[in-house]
Design a protein that fits this description.
The chain is of the alpha+beta class. 37% of the residues lie in helices and 37% in strands. Helix 1 runs antiparallel to helix 3.
């Protein structure tokens, strides 16, 4: 009896040791597929309506009409990110338990036997959390012009619970949603700049009040 228990224990340890890497790979791949599909579907649904740049940001000119500030509409941004976050979470909750089957031959770690033998059914249960935010970027569009692009970034943390192993994967998806061309003052010197430096050059800030 003791010998049977010992053999059973060794067999379980062998199966655990051999299957764990395979299960981890399968779970990670499944997590990325589930998260990407959920994010893509949610974004497509929630921004199907025509979102205008003016809904999310506003240009603030000075007394001469020169644009000195690009101001975010925080209320509208919060509303959009909240809608997308909730939608992604709903989709992840609806994901049913996925069952994968691994050939018993993989237990022996042989490439020849990897696809042989009866297939062991394993259930994969996804559990996910989601965060969403708005990102923006300034890029040069020509002399005296800059392009302000707005992206929706959705990050999903997917944890897949399977026998013998738990796998967690972070999936981040960026989706461009709108953009605008902004006319700025012609700089005295044309310099190739990007990001915040470009913004400061073409959108000079109002000096602080004395």
């Amino acid at each position: 009896m003791a010998a049977m228990v010992a053999v059973g224990g060794l067999l379980f340890a062998l199966v655990d040791w051999r299957l764990r890497p395979t299960l981890h790979q399968i779970a990670s791949a499944q997590a990325r597929v589930l998260a990407t599909e959920a994010v893509s579907q949610a974004v497509a649904t929630e921004i199907a309506e025509d979102i205008r740049w003016e809904d999310l940001y506003a240009l603030r000119p000075d007394s001469t009409g020169r644009v000195v500030l690009v101001q975010p509409n925080t209320a509208e941004i919060d509303r959009l990110t909240s809608k997308v976050t909730n939608r992604v979470q709903e989709l992840l909750k609806k994901v049913t338990v996925t069952q994968v089957r691994i050939p018993l031959g993989q237990v022996f770690g042989s490439q020849i036997l990897a696809n042989m033998g009866p297939r062991i059914p394993i259930s994969v249960v996804p559990v996910g959390t989601v965060t969403t935010k708005i990102l923006s970027d300034f890029e040069q569009a020509g002399i005296n012009q800059i392009r302000h692009k707005i992206y929706l970034e959705v990050a999903a943390h997917i944890k897949l619970v399977v026998p013998l192993v738990a796998s967690a994967v972070d999936v981040t998806v960026q989706v461009p949603i709108t953009e605008v061309l902004i006319m700025g003052d012609v700089p005295q010197t044309y310099i190739q700049l990007e990001g915040s430096e470009l913004r400061n050059l073409l959108l000079p800030q109002t000096p602080p009040a004395q």
